[in-house]
Amino acid sequence: MERPSLEMNLPDIHEEGKLYVVDSLNNLNKLNVCPDESQHVLDEEENTGGAGENTSGSNTRKRCLFFVAFILSLIISLALVSFVIFLIIQTRNKMDQISSRLITEKKNIEELKKMNNMILKHLNQSVIKE
Fold it and tell me: Are 61 and 69 in contact (CB under 8 A)?
């Protein structure tokens, strides 16, 4: 009866050895694939016993959210800069219109002054004649 119990223990040890070899190969593969900065994630996985997968997934998710937020902020900044440039151009156009109106009004005022002077001269001459 002892022999069957030994046979039962030997396959279990063999399977545990296979699991140990597979686990070692996985760790070696992770060391070769992962950059140095993510080594601490692997250490956390070993310490937590599988809960590290959620940590690495959350790190990837955090990076993805960071890049999405970064791209959105760039798009919003571009939109704001475009709006400011549009306002500057509109203000320049309005200022050009106002300055051209002022120049035109100044010419009209000069002509009115000349006409006023001519009328006054004419009135002064007609008063003197009478």
Answer: no
pLDDT in tens, 92-119: 999 999 999 999 999 999 999 999 999 9
**Conformational region of residue 34, where left means phi above 0, alpha means psi within -120 to 50, and beta covers everything else:** beta
User: What size, in residues, is the chain?
Assistant: 130
3-state class (DSSP) for residue 35? coil
Contact 30, 42 (CB under 8 A): yes
Residue 83 has which token pair?
């709006």
Residue 34 CB contacts under 8 Å (≥ 6 apart), including other chains: 41, 42
pTM: 0.43
